[in-house]
UniProtKB/TrEMBL annotation:
Residues 334-358 are annotated as: Disordered. This is Platelet-activating factor receptor. Belongs to the G-protein coupled receptor 1 family. It is found in: Cell membrane. The keyword Transmembrane applies. Residues 40-306 form the G-protein coupled receptors family 1 profile domain. Interacts with ARRB1. It comes from the Eukaryota. It comes from Aldrovandia affinis.
Length: 358
């Protein structure tokens, strides 16, 4: 969840403990993610649209398309977060927009986690049951699983839409915080928040365990096939599949695991549950800010997963890049050909001069 609050003080009860580096780093980082994330995910949608007629691609294409949509939802609200951090933590927009942007952050995080999980399961099925994967559509299954993921994620995100998202911080320049300021909540509300956060963290690590097991099984299957089957083409395909395993695990380890490791202690420090020293709270706050940035990277890394997940996606991208690279040469060749044809026509239209008599 975006934002970070810890108690500090004058009297260590009401003031907002900040991480000053985020006001410089976040606008730059989120601008980078916005530009390249928007480009990469729109490009991914373009490729997936052109692969819609591939029968064996239908199920995983559905998962990839939904994951891309989740990434674009987050990318599209990044300009609002950029403005928030440029204004040094002041939300200049309405409370409704604050709720929407916070909800998009939540949806992107957990839709990404769940769709990467089902993509891993789909690749495990494709590797262990290649004939079924090649000859079956399973489009209905892809739609049903995607609907279930969206329903579950949106149901969990309703809390962020119905509850107020903004808080006035009069002690720090009279600014309006967006999804920050939980240290000011009542004791009962704090207990609800801590339970909710720990449920989310426990859910994430359960899913992460399933992803690790699934990808280890993929590696074991691929390595066993390598011992039985030889051939350059066959091993090239297996190598790409192994790279997909590495990229999926990298997305989890880099983007999601650090945030969920820090989230529990950070929440307790924010809500002043337990004896936390001021230095410890500051370090947890700084670490939490860094993990928020890391989660934004998944919008850039997800299209990389698509390239290694399916050969058709990879081939389409490679073919398109070759066409783009060869386009200037083709244009030059076409121009020179047209000039040559034009010269020939001119020669046919203009008669040759008769030989001069001496």
């Amino acid at each position: 969840m975006p934002g970070s609050v810890v108690n500090s003080s004058g009297n260590d009860t009401d003031r907002f403990l900040d991480s000053e580096f985020r006001y410089t780093l976040f606008p730059i980082f989120y601008s980078f993610v916005f530009i390249f994330g928007l480009t990469a995910n729109l490009g991914a949608l373009f490729v997936l649209r052109h692969l819609r007629n591939a029968k064996a691609m239908n199920e995983i294409r559905i998962y990839m398309t939904n994951l891309t949509v989740a990434d674009l939802l987050f990318v599209c609200v990044l300009p609002l977060w950029i403005s928030y951090y440029k204004e040094r933590g002041h939300w200049a927009f309405s409370d409704a927009l604050c709720r929407i942007t916070g909800t998009m952050f939540f949806i992107n995080t957990y839709c990404s986690v769940l769709f990467l999980t089902v993509i891993s399961f789909n690749r495990y099925w494709a590797i262990t049951q290649p004939l079924d994967a090649a000859s079956s559509d399973h489009r209905r299954r892809g739609i049903l699983v995607s609907v279930a993921i969206w329903v579950a994620t949106l149901s969990a995100a309703v809390f962020y839409l119905v509850e107020p998202g903004t808080n006035d911080d009069a002690l720090n320049g009279n600014v309006t915080r967006c999804f920050e300021g939980y240290h000011q909540e009542e004791s009962e509300t704090k207990q609800t928040l801590i339970v909710t956060h720990f449920i989310i963290v426990a859910f994430f690590f359960l899913v992460f365990l399933l992803v690790v097991v699934c990808n280890l099984l993929i590696c074991r299957t691929l390595m066993a096939q390598r011992l039985k089957q030889v051939g350059r083409q066959h091993w090239r395909l297996k190598k790409h599949a192994l790279w997909m395993v590495c990229v999926v695990l990298a997305v989890f380890v880099v983007c999601f695991v650090p945030h969920h490791v820090v989230q529990g202690p950070w929440t307790m420090a924010v809500l002043k549950l337990g004896g936390w020293e001021a230095d410890t709270r500051q370090r947890l706050n700084d670490a939490h800010q860094v993990t928020l940035m890391l989660m934004g990277l998944n919008c850039l890394l997800d299209p990389v997963v698509y390239c290694f997940a399916t050969r058709k996606f990879r081939r389409f991208v490679a073919s398109w890049l070759r066409r783009m690279r060869n386009a200037p040469d083709c244009a030059s060749h076409t121009a020179s050909t047209n000039m040559s044809v034009g010269s020939q026509r001119h020669a046919q239209l203009v008669p040759l001069e008769p030989p001069r008599k001496e």
